[in-house]
């Protein structure tokens, strides 16, 4: 919805107050604020991975990250491999009881992607262009390692992945535009 000037997005409310639409203004229109370098964006307030993933991907699932895989069933495409725009759903585990979400921004190879996500360091910051590698024995994206941007190296922890959730049209377009062998 636009304001009376026709240039500011607002969310209509039931009362006389209009709220600005949420945005990720630190991320450019093409989805990359930092080129190829992993970057941390300090935020004015604590940003959680769920709200970031919802805004960045357009997927309207609510609740802890660990519930996204179940809640996506029948509403969104559920994939076992990453594609640009999909939300990678981390399973809950010791030390990460609510799971985690990250949005795929680039596919570099069959075993390496880049993601944007928030609150990875439990600090409320936004992490852009973070490398993630598939370390599963069967190359099935069931276990990954994530870049530690603060240390400038791949993290040592291995994280279980439930899969990738995306808008159905996005998943279908990715598959239909892939070259046929």
Write the layout of secondary structure elements.
Layout: E1 10-11, E2 19-20, E3 39-41, H1 49-57, H2 68-72, E4 77-79, E5 87-90, E6 100-109, E7 112-118, E8 126-134, E9 143-148, E10 153-154, E11 159-166, H3 168-176
Antiparallel strand pairs: 1-2, 3-8, 4-11, 5-6, 5-11, 6-7, 7-8, 8-9, 9-10, 9-11
Name some characteristics of this structure.
single chain; alpha+beta; endopeptidase fold (from Nostoc punctiforme); two-stranded antiparallel sheet; disordered N terminus; disordered C terminus
As for the CATH topology, it is endopeptidase fold (from Nostoc punctiforme)
How many structural domains can be distinguished in the coordinates?
Answer: 1
Q: CATH homologous superfamily, by name?
A: endopeptidase domain like (from Nostoc punctiforme)
As residue ranges, the low-confidence spans are: 1-32, 176-181
Question: What structural category do the secondary elements indicate?
Answer: alpha+beta
CATH architecture identity: Alpha-Beta Complex
Shape, principal axes of CA atoms:
globular
Please trace the helix and strand order, writing H or E for each element. EEEHHEEEEEEEEH
Distance N to C terminus: 45 Å
Q: Mean pLDDT score, rounded?
A: 82
Q: What is the helix content?
A: 10-25%
Q: How many β-strand stretches?
A: 11
- CATH C-level category: Alpha Beta
Largest sheet: 6 strands, antiparallel, barrel
How much strand? 25-35%
Radius of gyration, Cα only, in angstroms?
Answer: 17 Å
């Amino acid at each position: 919805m636009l304001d009376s000037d026709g240039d500011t997005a607002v969310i209509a409310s039931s009362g006389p107050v209009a709220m600005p639409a949420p945005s990720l203004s630190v991320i450019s229109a093409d989805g990359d604020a930092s080129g190829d370098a992993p970057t941390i964006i300090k935020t004015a307030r604590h940003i959680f991975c769920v709200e970031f993933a919802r805004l960045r991907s357009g997927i309207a699932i609510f609740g802890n990250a660990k519930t996204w895989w179940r809640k996506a069933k029948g509403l969104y495409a559920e994939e076992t491999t990453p594609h640009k725009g999909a939300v990678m759903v981390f399973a809950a585990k010791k030390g990460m009881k609510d799971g985690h979400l990250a949005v795929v921004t680039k596919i570099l190879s069959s075993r390496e992607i880049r993601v944007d996500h928030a609150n990875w360091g439990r600090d409320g910051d936004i992490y852009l262009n973070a490398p993630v590698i598939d370390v599963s024995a069967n190359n099935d994206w069931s276990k990954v390692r994530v870049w530690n941007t603060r240390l400038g190296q791949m993290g040592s922890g291995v994280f279980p992945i439930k899969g990738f959730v995306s808008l159905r049209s996005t998943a279908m377009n990715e598959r239909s535009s892939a070259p046929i062998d």
